[in-house]
Amino acid sequence: MPALAFTEMPLVSPVTGQTLAYDTLHSLAAPGERWPVVDGIPYLRVDSEGLAAVALDHLDAGCPDDALIALLTDQDAWWTGPATNLTELTRLVRERETLSLREAMALLRLGPVADYFAYRWSDPTYLAGLALLEMHATPTGVAFELACGIGHYLRELTRRGIECLGADVVFAKCWLAKNWVAPGAHYVVFDAAAQWPVVHMRFGLVMCHDAFYFLPDQTEVAARLRNALTEGGTLAISHLHNSEHAGGAMGPALSASGWAALFPDAQVYDERALLVALLGGTVAAPSGWTPEPSVEAWSLVEGAGPPRPIARGLAIPPAGAVLRRNPLLGNDGSVRWPSRRYQDEYAAGCFWAGPAGASPFNADDVRLRRLVDLPERW
C-alpha cells in the first residue's frame, strides 16, 4: 500500500468535490475556492467558510499564530460549554512548547470534555476499543480514524509504525493530538455529514471509536466508512450505546435491532467481554446483536477474520514505555474521580478502582491500568 501523502492522494473540496492542490505552503485551492492549512492541518469544515477566510487572511499576511488562534475558537455544533477567551488562546499559542496537555485543554475551556480526554487512558470504553483492535486489526498499511478526538488510538498505532490519518470536525482536537498526543499522525478537519475530502483515499484499517452514535445520517456515514477500505481491510467501530440498557443509555442510542440494520454482517461484541479478554489475556467471543438489557454498549468489526487472543499488542504499552501510577489513584490506592459525571459514566467498568488484589481477574497492574502509559507532556 502506498505511503499516505496528500500530494499523492489529494484531498477534494467538501463543497464542490474539486481536487484541491497547494497554491501556497499554507493553503489548498481549486477554481473559485481556497482553504487554510494551519500547523499542517487542512481546515475543510463546511458552514465555516467565514472562519476559514479569516484564517486565510492571517496566513496570507504572514501571521500564522493569528490564524491558529482563529481556528482554535471553533467548536462542535452541539457545544454548550463556555466560549474560548482570546487572551487565554494567545497564551496557549505563545507557550505551546512548554504547557502540559491538561493546561492546554484548560486554556481551550474544554470543561468535562477535558476530563474525558485527560483520563481516557484507563477508562473501560477506551480499553475495550484497544482490545477490539488487537483481536482483529492487522497492524500494517495505513489507518484512518473518523472523529479521532485528541488522538488516543492514533498514538498507539503510530508508535508501532502504522501510518495514520485522523479526522475530526473540531480543529482544536486535531491540533492537540498533533502537538501533545500523536505527533506522528496526519490530520484533516471536516464534517462527517458533508462530502468527505478523503473520498479518493483507501485504508487498510478504518475506525470510529466512542463517537459513531452521535454522528448524523448514520446510514450514509457507515457506507462511507466501508467505501474507505482497501480490499481485505477492516472496519472497527466501538461503543455503540444500547437504548434498552437497564440502567439507561449514557448517550444517543439504538436497540440491538436498530444497530443490526446498520451493521448486519458485523462481528459484534458486548463491550464487557472485550474488557475481560484484555484483563485475562484471552479472546472474546462475539455476542451478536442479541437484545439484552444488561449490555451497555456493543463494539464491532467488519471484514475481519476470527479474533486473536490479546497478548502484548495494541492493548498493552509497547516495550520501553515509561509507566506511571494512574493519576486517578492516590498513594493509598483511593480513587480521585475528576467529577461526579465522570464517575457515574466510568466507575462501574474501572477494574483498577478497587483495592489491590480485589480484581476478580488474574491481571497485572499494567493490564488493570493501575500503571498507565501517559504522553510525555500529559
Q: How would you sum up this structure, described in words?
A:
The protein folds into two domains: 34-110, no CATH class; 111-378, Vaccinia Virus protein VP39 (Rossmann fold, 3-Layer(aba) Sandwich). The chain contains 13 helices and 13 strands. The strands form three sheets. Strands 7-6-5-8-9-11-10 form a seven-stranded mixed sheet. It has a four-stranded antiparallel sheet with strand order 1-2-3-4, with helices on one face. The protein is α/β, with parallel strands linked by helices and 378 residues long. The chain has helices at residues 49-60, 64-72, 86-94, 101-107, 112-118, 124-136, 152-158, 171-181, 218-227, 256-262, 271-280, 340-346, 365-368; strands at residues 21-24, 27-30, 33-38, 41-42, 142-146, 163-168, 186-189, 203-209, 229-241, 267-270, 297-302, 324-325, 371-372. The longest helix has 13 residues, at 124-136. Helix 1 runs antiparallel to helix 2 (64-72), helix 2 (64-72) crosses helix 3 (86-94) and helix 6 (124-136) packs across helix 11. Helices cover 30% and strands 17% of the residues.
